[in-house]
Amino acid sequence: MKRIVLFGYRGTGKTAIGTVLAQKLGVPFLDTDALVEQQAGRTIPEIFRDSGEAGFRAREREAVSGLPDRDAIIATGGGVVMDPANMEHLRKESVCVLLSADPNVIGHRLAHAPRPALTSLSPTDEITAMLKHRRPAYAAAADFCIDTGRTTAGEAAEKILTLLGAGSIPDTARHTAARWFAATPLPAPEKEELERKLLGPGYDPQTRFLGVAGWPCGHSKSPVLFNRLFEHYRLNCHYTRFEAPEIGPVMEMARLISAKGLSVTIPFKQDVMSYLDEIDEAAQKIGAVNTVVFACGRAYGWNTDWIGIRKPLAHLSGSRAVLLGAGGVAAAAAYALRDLDMEIIILNRTPEKARALAERTGCRFGAWDDFDRTNPDLVVNATSIGMQPDTGSPLRDDQLKKEMTVCDLVYTPPVTSLIAAARKAGCTTILGTETFVYQAQEQFRLFFGIDVPDTTIREILA
């Protein structure tokens, strides 16, 4: 059998439930906290006292790295999810179950637990604060969720066994999903693969589904990238395309098949926000979501576009920048450039849209024809000009000066007309594939808690 890994805050029942599961399945039970104490020859409070939290986390990382790959039930410490190295080890060939409970229930269970405080807050306030802080990591860790607030260890173990046998997608939902995807523009090979994973003989009920949501999204490189990453990290997941003219049916289908997450692209980055339960602060300020994580019946929204834009431009902090465009991608770019303390002017064919985005982001704005008076260090193209079918350039060749750095956020094709002209003019150029690499890297961390080296993503995309 695969490993079953139990995640969750202290007091959610990982040890008690894990012990019952191990007995029922006839496999070893391992508790990472107990392993740390055994290997250190000291209790966890003593490790915290002598070495602090950093010393404990180092020992925890060592214990996690030595766990067996199969045939075991593993209970983890409450903070293990915060370390991407731990998640890479724990998610491999594993079924990951998040245990949760109301903070008041957890507080009652921990009232007499001899563990050091992690903050200066009261016990109840600390639990609430730590749960909020760890929420993204817990969502990333969850393949399945069990609320243990009102269950015995035996009852929770039975629920987990049911999920292992039947998964979280009813048979009727699998057939409905298969028909829905068959009616979309999915390429025939992808339709066949998806139908096999949904309904094929001997399908795995534990397989989790993810996908890119857009209209159209046939050009997206995400399915190839993520499915290769699933193979690399040995994750039981499949990534497809949710291609439909409206976001409502996409979100309905994603929930129907208990999707793990969605990459959201044009034209849904704003529309999807009304379907989410919680939205990250950066995404709220940008006004667009490109990443949705589903966990424990809730949908969480994030924007990783701005991170993908920021990373390759970090060395240009403080520059004068012209941002071309005023849509959702431009909003993410403005947020990234502001985070790098740049002086920004937004230009758009429709000045009113440039004004609206500028007022929202604290930038200057102008008409498209104002470009020649801006003298920028950096030009960022956040329009769709350069992407099929409009493969032209947003700027004339004579507007490009060798002192400029030109970043085109269009990544299909990798070398756009703008990039080709900028190279000819002697400009420093940054391809849209760079921003795609870094936003996908952050997206994978939100989906699974794992930090993928950018070199790995580049190798897959090459």
How would the blueprint of this fold be written?
Layout: E1 3-7, H1 14-25, E2 29-31, H2 32-40, H3 44-65, E3 73-75, H4 84-91, E4 94-100, H5 103-109, H6 123-141, E5 144-147, H7 153-166, H8 171-182, H9 188-199, E6 208-214, H10 222-233, E7 237-243, H11 247-256, E8 261-264, E9 278-279, H12 281-286, E10 291-295, E11 298-302, H13 305-313, E12 320-324, H14 328-339, E13 343-348, H15 351-361, E14 364-367, E15 378-381, E16 405-408, H16 417-424, E17 428-430, H17 432-448, H18 454-461
Parallel strand pairs: 1-3, 1-4, 2-3, 4-5, 6-7, 6-8, 9-11, 12-13, 12-15, 13-14, 15-16, 16-17
Antiparallel strand pairs: 8-10, 10-11
Keywords: Amino-acid biosynthesis, Aromatic amino acid biosynthesis, ATP-binding, Kinase, NADP, Nucleotide-binding, Oxidoreductase, Transferase
Binding site for shikimate: 220-222, 265, 290, 305, 411, 439
Family: Belongs to the shikimate dehydrogenase family.
